[in-house]
Every structure is written in C-alpha cells, then in structure tokens.
Amino acid sequence: MARRKLLSVLIILIALSAMPATAQQRVWTETGEPVSGWEHVDEGIREFMETWTVPGAAMAVAAQGRLVFARGYTWNIPDTDAIQPNSLFRIASMSKPITSVAIHQLIERGLLSYDTRIVDILDLQPMPGLEPDERLALVTVDHLLYHVGGWDRDQTFDPMFHDEVIAAALGVDLPISKYDIATYMTGSQMQFEPGSRYVYSNYGYCLLGMIIETVTGRDYSEWVAENIFQPIGVGRPRRGHTAFNERAPGEVVYYGANGEDPYRWNIENMDAHGGWVVSAPDFARFMSSLFDNPDNSPLLTRQSIESMVEVSPVTADTAYARGWVAFQEDGRTIYGHSGSLPGTLTSANWSSGGVAVVAFMNTRKYTADLELHDPTVNPEHDLFESVGVVNDALGAAPAESWIPVVANGDGSGGSIWRSDVGLLNRSLMINQVRIRLEMPGLEVDRELELAPGEHLVMADIVSDLGLSGSGSLRVFSFEPLTIASRTYNVSDEGTFGQYLGGVTGPGGLINGDSAVLMHLREDDVARSNIGILNAGRRQARVRTVLYDGAGSEVVRFNRTVDPRQTRQLNRPFDALGNRTDIGAGYAVVTVLDGEEVVVYGSVIDAGTNDPTTIPMKTNGGATEIHVAAAAHAEGAEGSVWRTDLGLLNPGAESTEITVTFHPSSGPDLSMSLSLASGEHQVLDDVIGRLDGEGSGSLEISAETPILVSSRTYNQGVEGNFGQYLDGIDETGMVGADTSVWLPQLQQNDDFRTNIGLYNTGGIQAKVKVHLHDTDGSLLSTTQRTIAPGGRTQLQEPFDRIAGRTDISSGYAVVEIVTGTGVTAYASIIDNRTNDPTTVPMQR
C-alpha cells in the first residue's frame, strides 16, 4: 500500500537534531471527532509526538471538498490547554501559497502581470549615499514568485531575520518595519542575474506583499482575508504577532528547540512570506477551493491555477512553481508547501483525486519524518461546519480590532464622559475574546466567551475594568467579531453620544500616508478635538496641518504618539492656531514615521456637550456621492431635525458641484455651486437652503473628485444634538446576496432605534431586515422593496415589528436579496435628550 508522508518536508526546511526526550509528567490528549478506520493515524501521530516530545499538533484531511478528519493532539504537562482541531498555528512559509493566489487574482484583474517590474510598482529607495544594484530594475513579479529574483541568503543573510543589523544600519529603533528592510536591501548588492538561478527568498515574497498593498491601496492581510478567505467561508486567519501576550485567543503556545526563542522573531514583518496564523481545517478548505474543481474555483480561473503550479526550467530541480511545490508521485499530481520557524513546523499537500492533507506542530524539534499508511475508509461525513468553516461567503468582520478611545472621566465645559462597547459574535462557534485596555504604562485584560450570535454590550467599560481616565481598547477574538462603541456625555437630562466603530491597526496609515478630517469647527457654537491612535509597535511621528474653510493654512505641527496609545489634541485650532472663528475647518494628517496609525475628529457642541465623531478619509474623493438621510422636519418626542452638508475640494483646480435633494415625497430639488482648490464649505440646513421640507437623501455630483460629510441634528434650546452621516460612493454600497450588520441597537425606556435603507442603484432592491436579541435569537424578519433612488425608514422596528420594548443590546442583519447600490444604517436616539447616534452598517 502506498505510504503518504503527512508531515513531510516539501522544500527547504531546517531540521534540528534532537535526541528523544523522556515523557516524564506528560499526559496525552486527543480532541475532535474520532473517525472509524483511521485509528492508525491517531496511533502513529501519538507515537511520533511521544518519541520526539512534540507538545501539540493538529491534522485536517479534506476529501472531495468534505472535511473527513480533524483532530487535535496534545503531549504536554497536566493542565495545559489541549490542542483543538481548529486551534490556530503560525504556518510560516505556508503563507507563500496564499500570497501567490493573491498575486494571481490581481493578474486576472489586469492590475499586474508576470512581467511587471517591481520598480514600476514600489518606490524602492536606498539609504542616503547608496545606489541600487542595476539588476534591481530587471526584477519582475514572476522572478519573485519563483525565487529567482537575484538575492542569495547563503552568500549574505536572510534580511527577514536580522532586525538588529538593519536597525543599526538605518539608525532606527526596534522593531523595524518591512519598509525598513526594503530600504536596507535596496542599497545592498544582489548576488546574481534575476531569472538565472533559484535561491529560496523570503524577502522576495515580502516584496510581493508590498506590491499587493501598493496596487490595492489596502493592507496586505486585510485584502487577502477579504478576497481569499472570506469568499470560501473562512474567517479565522489573521496576521500573527511576535509577542507571547499578543497571541490570538485559540492560538497555540509555541515551544523552541535547542535554545530557540519562538517569540523573538518579527512575525508582523513576515506577513506575506511567513506571518499567517491559520487553523488546519482553514488551510484544507483553501486548498480544496483551489484545486478540487478548477473550472469552478471561487478563487482563480483554471488558466490561472495551471499557470500558478507550472514549474520553471530554472526551478525544475526543486519542483518549485509559483508559490507552490508541484510534482508527480505514484501516478498522482501533488501540490503543496511546508513551513518552519522556531516553535513551528507545518506541511500541506493536495493530491489529484481531491485529497488535501494539512498537519501543524507547535515545535520543530524532530529528526525524522512522520509516515502513515493511507486510510482504507473514506468517510461520508463533512466536519467543516463543526470546526467553524461554512459554505457561504463571510462578511468582513475582523478577528482583531481597536476602539481608538474609551473614557471614564470629566472633560471640558462640565462634561462627564463614559463609553459603552458592543461585541457581536459573527460566528456559529463559541467565540473566545480578549479585551485589553491600553493606557500609558498599563494594560488590563479580560477574557470572555460569546455564544454563537451573541451580542454583549459592556456599559461604562473603563469603570467595568476597574479604572478611570481614557485609553484605547484592543480586542482579540478567535472567531470573526464586530465591535462598536458609543462614547457619551452624561447629563441630568440624559446622554449625548457619538459612535466609534472598530478599526484595524493593519488598515491604518503608514509612512507617507495622509488622511483628511473635515467638518471641523472651533467657534462659539462648537469645539473640535483630534485623536491619533498608534496601533503600531514603535513610536509614530505625525504631522497635522489645519486649514480654514477657504483652504488657507492655519497652523502645522508635529506630534509623537507612543506605541499602542492614543493621543488627543484638544481644540488645536484655538490652542495652536489662535483661531476661534472656524465654522468649516479641516485637518490633513500625515504619518512621517510609523505604521498602523488611525486618526479621528470629535466636534462637541458648546451648549450641550454633544459629540459627533468625524472619521478619517484616506481616498481622493469621488465625483458621485450620496448621503443616505437628510432632514428639515419635526420628529418624535418634540425633536426638530436639520442637516448640514460638508463639501471639500482636495483637487488642484476649482470644481463645479450639484447638490440634489431626493425627498421621500415630492419633486427633487437642486442647487449648484463652485468650490475652489482646497476650499471646504459647510451648507447649514442644506434642505432649508433648497426651500425644501421633510426627509430624504442627498446626491452630490462634481466635475472632479470631492469629499463629502454630513451632520443631522436635533435643534434644542441650549444647542444641537447631532449624528454624523458620511458621504458614500459606489465602494460603500452593497448588492444582492450580501448581508450587513447593525450592532448595539436599543429599544427601551431610555432609547429608541430607527433603521434606514437607501437604494442608489438603477434597479429595484428587495431587502430583508432580521431583528435579533442579545443572545442571537431571531425576533422578527421584515421585507421591504425599495425603488431605484428610493429610501425607507423603519421606525422603532423592535417595538412596532417585533413587539419588544426591553432591548438593551440588540442587532439587525440586513440581507440584500436583489438590487445594487444599497446602504443601511441605524439611528439610536436618547428618549430624554433626543440625541441621535448613527450606527453605520458593518460588512
């Protein structure tokens, strides 16, 4: 009978010599569903692990798209957490096939080709006084995929593992970034002509990850999750972390061998070549989705797949294709890869006939390969759903997020600030969650478990964690999780709040990136603060330039922000620019040094201390933008609603703009205006300016790209209570067969919730709204049909549709059945103050 090496080493792998260790005080544990006829697999793995003192392993086998075997194995001291079938492992160089698929997706979309020169995509600059090797201009994407780029780590060193050398050469602090590595290597000599010979290169795949970021304008790991894993029902994979205390919930502990330290190496920089953290069933689904049926793969076309696994004549001796090892054995075609790091040994093979075998270990202490006989039984069951891998595409809920600021303390003008945080488990599995409050010199953790579909709202979270003051909140989860927050000012009458959604550090700004904060104000009516979150691992240096409405510079200044901290700039127009007459100001924030930086603004009404969050804008704008809701009308509980519209021209030339109000009933109303270069106008009560009444939506058209914001507010006696509604272009819309989430909704004596649906598309949209209680139970479903350009608002649906007035942490799932260009939002209104807080849809 043929023998398959389930833990075979497919390509370059460091084999550390080790004598078999004793099994003193260790206990054996198996998890996952045993499979009849596969007992010898369990027995063989146990013998191997006990012989070589392997603390933990996981194995997954998929056959014809079904997960037929998923087991976790632990050989460790008592009271150690047992490895589960879906435990998360660093997969080291098994990250390279993932990067290769991402590159091939961009080739299919016409954004790259094999012949694309890397210098035409990346702005590679050497250290001052050095010049790039002339051969660098010859390196193509294909050279990097095949490891024939021109770098020989055996003649020099692997730059991905020599942070201290590179930091010293560049004169920068540790930890260095992958961009620092690229700067160092651009000034270094190459060792051979690109394409002439094969030398395995982690750095080459690091460059491929940077190419993906440059071409897409997105963080590598976020783009890959959205375009590779989520479409195949996999939500757990994420970029790994170096530090032990930053392991994901459900991630294994890594054990070094022969003095190795698994927590020394810079895992964050390895993202595209060795930084992914994945479960064995996740990777089995990845390979099955690619290779089982290439004519219907959700990831690549057959032509792309065949090209990806084609071995080059230069790499024939190693059987290395474009990111995969590809070879024939016993009449079968096999595609695979392996990975190795201190504390990690991984391998995966897919063979013709549709069998994918994945095995991970949390050490690389071994002297022999594990060989097992093929099972004689092919089970009919499918275990994928039991380990959290589903058949439908997933939304974009991340597994690690930040709330930039949470508070429990006093502020200006007699304000009293508190923050509530909502955690919504988007998985069918129990979700292990760790929340971490970051304050200067202080970290406080809490471990939680959320049932499938459960939505937990932690009221006054800073106090709940036993602290006061303000800080940033970091949230790690095993399964996908939506997080949201409401920070509010407490008064005798009620609360005045603002929404702050979860953001991801990798999705933030890096060196040279800029973001715009518009709709800022500093006058008798309102004051503005600016917050800067540095989610990165070293100090960030940030430049902020403030402008008035005419586009004239008010002041510029630089600030540093410590790692994992948020710095707030209070009233900078006044404190630094000596201006208190700003009715329509904006800020341009640029990262001079650092990565994973997120900025936001907060505009606070002088009379009510009501805050409105201003999110950062990182694109150059659009020519067609919509605002989902606007009003000049009276509402419930004596509220009086108005909308201010913000328009900013970031271009170098003036532009003509048309603003059209689409009322819920009656004819459209329009106005035209010009905006000079850099000009920012805020049109107070824009519908009143159009001589309109009622509620509806706004459509803004411009000759050149512009930025748009809006604030809809209730006019009170003492001041305004407002909510931010962003201007959205086509990238902010969703279409058929898509669902979005609206978290942290309430319907009770203190708060009421409305839900808005807007169809910007050219065809009729059919939308279902599913209302859920805090435990995830479905309360009611309602369906709406929305005409092209139309909108509808569900007034207090938890009460009027579901018949519930005791909802303190509910949520809605909005399912788009048919249509294009649909957006959804919720508005939570304090019944005592009539203060609204917008909850934007979460994908």
CATH class of the largest domain: Alpha Beta
CATH topology of the largest domain: Beta-lactamase
Structural class determined from secondary elements:
mainly beta
The share of residues in helices is 10-25%
pLDDT average, as an integer? 93
Number of helices: 14
Query: What's the overall geometry?
Result: globular
Task: Tell me about the largest β-sheet.
Answer: 8 strands, antiparallel
CATH architecture title of the largest domain: 3-Layer(aba) Sandwich
List low-confidence stretches.
1-23
Beta-strand segment tally: 43
State the separation between the terminal residues, measured CA to CA: 49 Å
Name given to the CATH homologous superfamily of the largest domain: DD-peptidase/beta-lactamase superfamily
Determine Rg (CA atoms, Å). Answer: 28 Å
Number of domains: 5
Beta strand %: 35-45%
What does this structure look like?
The chain is mostly beta strands and 843 residues long. The protein folds into 5 domains: 3-16 and 24-94 and 236-387, Beta-lactamase, CATH 3.40.710; 103-221, DD-peptidase/beta-lactamase superfamily (Beta-lactamase); 400-501, Sandwich (Hypothetical Protein Tm1070, Chain: A), CATH 2.60.290.11; 514-731, TM1070-like (Hypothetical Protein Tm1070, Chain: A, Sandwich); 733-840, Hypothetical Protein Tm1070, Chain: A (Sandwich). 14% of the residues lie in helices and 40% in strands. It has 14 helices and 43 strands. Strands 13, 14, 15, 16, 17, 18, 19 and 20 form an 8-stranded antiparallel sheet that branches. A 7-stranded antiparallel sheet has the order 2-4-3-11-10-9-8, sandwiched between helices. Helix 2 (95-108) packs parallel to helix 6 and helix 4 packs across helix 5. It is globular and about 80 Å long. Residues 1-23 have low confidence and may be disordered.
